[in-house]
Specification:
The complex is a heterodimer. The model of chain A has no long low-confidence stretch (mean pLDDT 90). In chain A, helix 1 packs antiparallel against helix 3 and helix 2 packs antiparallel against helix 3. Chain A has one domain: Up-down Bundle (F1FO ATP Synthase), CATH 1.20.20.10. Chain A is an all-alpha fold. The longest helix of chain A is centred in the last third of the chain and has 31 residues. Chain A is 87% helix and 0% strand. Chain A has three helices and no strands. Chain B has one domain. In chain B, helix 1 packs across helix 2 and helix 2 crosses helix 7. Chain B is 68% helix and 4% strand. In chain B, the strands form two sheets. Chain B has a two-stranded antiparallel ribbon. In chain B, strand 2 and strand 3 form a beta hairpin. The chains are: A mainly alpha, B mainly alpha. At the A-B interface, helix 3 of A face helix 6 and helix 7 of B.
Chain lengths: 75, 243
């Protein structure tokens, strides 16, 4: 296998990391919705944590995406 | 692949005023320029905004007051009692990251926070500072942080190394989180921009996608500044109150 095709495959594999980010973000907002549906009064207290969780979950996926970009455009 | 993409060119640091002192390259670069702009803008907002000090705030004054109150509230609720002396540091950190992120969203500008060395320097300052505060406050007792309470002896053998590792990995996760978000977001924008340049009339699709991503990036820019500041508060809480 030559280097160019190996890079393409590697970048594709690195993007699998986004599966986890998708599951994580979905989980965060699903929990937020069910929490707020059960107790609407709690919304101001739980919403900041939901966005914190969203940002943390999204970041892990972006690590993989950043690796994919680095493979494709730097090395 | 026919199209020529150079999406990482936007992150290139170029010297504007070359400057060498004793073999050290201390050139004034485009990164330094945008850091200067961020600091000048923050100073202008806070100093000019609160100069009149009106009882009923105008537009600028209420923006300045809102950012102050937002961070003060964040430090109060997340860093716990006794964290007030560290509020100026957290506020500076938050405003600098926020303004750097937002300045980077302007087309043809430079994103300072997309440079790993910048975010790592900020995170290392937080990490070293918090560790020093912990040791000053608690002395050797600070090491209790690595020993969870009410855990059987056998489990401690496993848990203590994990706690120590998770403590020392903090500056890396803190810096890479911000850096990767900025890098990935801006690279995506550039890639879809590159698509638009090469597909003729169909360009409307990548441009529309770019607009959507830019909207997400505005959210991410604010959110990552918030996350950076709130994690600093949580680390500070560990140092001040141990658990």
């Amino acid at each position: 296998m030559d280097l160019a095709s190996a890079k393409m495959i590697g970048a594709g594999l690195a993007c699998i990391a986004l599966v986890g980010a998708g599951v994580g973000i979905g989980n965060v907002f699903a929990s937020l919705i069910s929490a707020v549906a059960r107790n609407p009064a709690a919304q101001p207290q739980v919403q900041p944590f939901a966005f914190l969780g969203f940002a943390l979950a999204e970041a892990t996926g972006l690590f993989g995406l950043a690796i994919a970009f680095l493979i494709l455009f730097v090395f | 692949m026919a199209l020529e993409l150079h999406p990482l060119e936007q992150f290139k640091v170029e010297p504007l005023i070359p400057l060498h002192i004793g073999g050290l390259d201390v050139s004034y670069t485009n990164a330094s320029l945008f850091m200067t702009i961020a600091v000048v803008l923050i100073t202008a907002l806070l100093v000019l905004g609160t100069k009149r000090g009106a009882l009923v705030p105008g537009r600028w004054q209420s923006v300045a007051e809102m950012s102050y109150e937002f961070v003060a509230d964040m430090v109060d609720t997340n860093a716990g009692h006794g964290a007030e002396p560290y509020f100026p540091f957290v506020f500076t950190l938050f405003m600098f990251v926020l303004f750097s992120n937002f300045l980077g969203l302007i087309p043809y500008s430079f994103t300072v926070t997309s440079q790993i060395i910048v975010t790592f320097a900020l995170a290392a300052a937080v990490f070293i500072g918090v560790t020093i505060i912990g040791f000053i406050k608690h002395g050797a007792h600070f090491l209790r942080l690595f020993v969870p309470e009410g855990v059987p002896m056998v489990l401690l053998l496993l848990l203590v190394p994990i706690e120590i590792l998770s403590y020392f990995i903090r500056p890396f996760t803190l810096s890479i989180r911000l850096f990767a978000n900025m890098l990935a977001g801006h690279t995506m924008l550039a890639i879809f921009g590159g698509f638009a340049a090469s597909v003729g009339l169909l360009a409307i699709l990548p441009v529309a996608l770019d607009v959507a991503i830019l909207a997400l990036e505005v959210l991410v820019a604010a959110l990552q500044a918030y996350v950076f500041a709130i994690l600093t508060c949580l680390y500070l809480r560990d140092a001040l109150h141990l658990h």
